[in-house]
Amino acid sequence: MDVELNDHHDIYANTDFCIFVNDQLWDGWIELNKNSFLLHNDFHQDCQLVSSNAGSTIGFTFTRRFLTCDARDYAIEPGTTNFVFAVGSGKPRTLNDSSVVFDMKYNQLLQRNLPAWPIEMQDTDSLVIKANNAHVPSEVTTYWCVTVKLDEILQADKHHIIQIEALITPGNEFLVHHMEIFHCPEPIEATYNGNCDYKSESAHLRTCSRVIAAWAMGAGPIVYPPEAGLPFGGPDFNPWVMVEIHYNNVEKKSGIIDESGFRLTYTKNLRPNDAAIMELGLIYSDANSIPPGRSNWAMTGECVADCTNKFPKEGITIFASQLHSHLTGRKLWTSHYRDGVKIGEINRDNHFSPHWQVIRRFQGLKKVFPGDVLSTTCVYETLDKKNWTWGGYGIEDEMCVNYIYYYPASEVEVCKSAVDNSTLHKFFSAFGVKNHKLKIHEKYLTVKWSERRYKFLNELYTSGNLNMHCLNHAGDLFPSHRTNWTNIPRPETFAGVYTKDRALFECPSIND
């Protein structure tokens, strides 16, 4: 029996383990040798056995320092840790042994257990919004939309949502990648339950753009603090909402029926503040694309001062956050700048896994004022890719998003960026791609890339001007901006003294 620690979703890459055999505990590491995963004892033993039992149920308790400064040990740091629990007969030499079975779990070890916010269940009710007998297509990526009209009680009076939880159809946990609930600001003629390709019969769903709730693999329920609730219903609230479900059907299975969705717990007893969700990060666009063969390719989406100036004058208070990317995301965080100086971070995960995208509550509330800058950075790894990874909606595409949960609600729904189109086209022209009829991704494919040119592209991404999506709840750009939110200079920012990192060369680990 062993417990393995590693990054991301690769079971064996950069893996440290503690293995329990014959009432002894060994510290070791895994080596990939051709097609075998060989188990090696570590030179320095850092797993310490506390207790064990070998009856009908075998178990053991052990301790290990978070940081051992051993190049063969995994450094347990803030962020996601991937646990692999394996069981076999005796002490196998390799994990390819037919007797070995394993399971994976994710957790964040270095986080405080915050006391749960109380939920007064008196005068509460719940609403379930879910897919109705959805026949999931045998395609890798499908977005499924379901619209629901609120009942007369919710239409009559404003309520506050105080808890949101995902309901995943048992057996479909592998299939549902993420879900969102949107408010539709305009009336819808009839309910809809089908593919949201936004064509023909589903075209009208484009107006459903205000995010009410978001969930991704690994996230638990979101409970709102006692001083805030998500506004829902009432005479000024159009009574239509939509659930959008991203199905990730990697094996292209057919015949799958799904009824996943959300349960919303709400109350008529209004709290002092209206809460909201805002999207930070990169625009879903092929302007934000990642070359193949990169070990650490960073891209940053800006929420610039022109957009945060539309926050309430007293600022907003962020109480939770959910980081989100697809398969190549490795490190994600949002930096908070004031007057150009970094004053902190709004969530960080240096060991991100797309299979466990937890909603993280903050111990201390984060206050953001008008004029502040919020920079969301995602670091991608594409070493096993031979083709470009485009920014977009498909699971093989990439995203870089931080959903922030905050109060009081502002008029800003989305604050995201991409490299400015005109700046990008000038870049392509400098490398001989001058056909203006080509789409952006076609221009990427036309360039003859080299390491030198990748460095120029990285410079463009980190210093080039921006196109901004500073969007209101209707999904429209705020009007009357001096450049219509295009060709905006990237904010000038400086890192303040705010954190201490592990010195990699003085304190090495297997996951460096």
Automatic annotation (TrEMBL):
Catalytic activity: tyramine + L-ascorbate + O2 = (R)-octopamine + L-dehydroascorbate + H2O
InterPro entries: Cu2_ascorb_mOase-like_C, Cu2_ascorb_mOase_CS-1, Cu2_ascorb_mOase_N, Cu2_ascorb_mOase_N_sf, Cu2_monoox_C, DBH-like, DOH_DOMON, PHM/PNGase_F_dom_sf
Membrane-crossing segments per the record: none
Superkingdom as given in the UniProt entry: Eukaryota
SUPFAM superfamilies membership: PHM/PNGase F
Record carries keyword Glycoprotein: yes
Gene3D superfamilies noted in UniProt: 2.60.120.230, Copper type II, ascorbate-dependent monooxygenase, N-terminal domain
An example Gene Ontology biological process: octopamine biosynthetic process
Single GO term (MF): dopamine beta-monooxygenase activity
Cofactor: Cu(2+)
Family designation: Belongs to the copper type II ascorbate-dependent monooxygenase family.
PANTHER family: DOPAMINE BETA HYDROXYLASE RELATED, MOXD1 HOMOLOG 1
Protein name: Tyramine beta-hydroxylase
